[in-house]
Amino acid sequence: MANGFFSSIRSNLNNRFSGRLISLMLAELGRREPKIFLEFLQSSGLGNLPSHLREQILAGKAQFEVERAYVSGRRADLAILTRGQERILVEVKEDDHRSEKNVMQTQDYIAWLKSESDRFFVHFSRYIPEQTLQVLESEKHPRSFDLRFRDLHKTTRDLVDQPLSAMIADYLEEIGVTSYRRIPLEDDGQALTLMAVQIAGIHSRGMGRLQNAYTTLRAPRLLAELVENALELGSWFHEANLENCSQKPTSRYWVTRYCDRDKMIRQLQRSSNDDDELPSSAISSANIFIYFLASLKKMKGDGWSRVEAGYVVEIDPEETENAFIRLYVSLNWQGDFTYLESDPLVEFPSEEFATKTLRKLMSSAQKEASKKGSPIILTEFAIPEIRR
Fold it and tell me: Which end of the chain has the smaller Cβ count within 10 Å, N or C?
């Protein structure tokens, strides 16, 4: 873990207090940057908060209390009060998200919620426990909401001029929380192509037209955003496969280059140096894989197995000024690969489209792998909309 401000504090705490730290961060965000805190709440659908409650929060008149007792024997991780009355209770789940007590705890929150018409409940977690989700979905109470750590990251990630928000976003990234970015290819297609050809080392006529003040700065940032997106997709995979995938996935990228062999040989033969540059004009195309990598548990003595999935950015060998993008899945059982990919995408995939497409690809890849004797057993990608 990186040594950020909040990470340094967390490193001195027992894991059972990790949720407490996040509760304190939320409380400080509400006190110091109330507009941003309200935007975060509204990302869950809490845009229908009564106007007087929104006004109290924005004016800095709401009180934020951590570990607030709200019924006998129960404490809310964070309570938001106006005029001394609890209006919003927040339950934070991180390392204790598998506790058997979660169902009864959620039911007590719902009971508190129903007792008055001006009360709201927010469940805030990295991964919502399945039992808790079932309680929330069975109740379908209009004043209970499910928020994820990624929602807080999405709210704070670009607020570099807001010190606390920036520190919170940094901390979330340090503990492996990111949020998905939709990349507008109509604006960034040229920068995506520049990123791909620069990584691949491709050079051909017309490449100079890709470079301008915008694309030169945007290309490396695009790579960072794609890597973060891959990690976010990995978090959905991890959530759906906790039994088989105990460790959090990591994000990576890899380049596969293709060359004109005869052209490469001729250019190397003309070289007078033993140690010379690889002739980039002989590289005709390339694939840049940007993906998450997940290791699966061994099953009944079987060997290791891994899953990778994400994007592949391709440079067309016939038209190297245009890159296009696909989604792909690769299952690796003891070195035996099963690879499947989507058709080229017309536009950059939304989070929902990406998870649904990868789920279909993974299901098909599992069937192919099973024919080879692979014991890989996976569930499926969770779909973002199920939590709303």
Answer: C
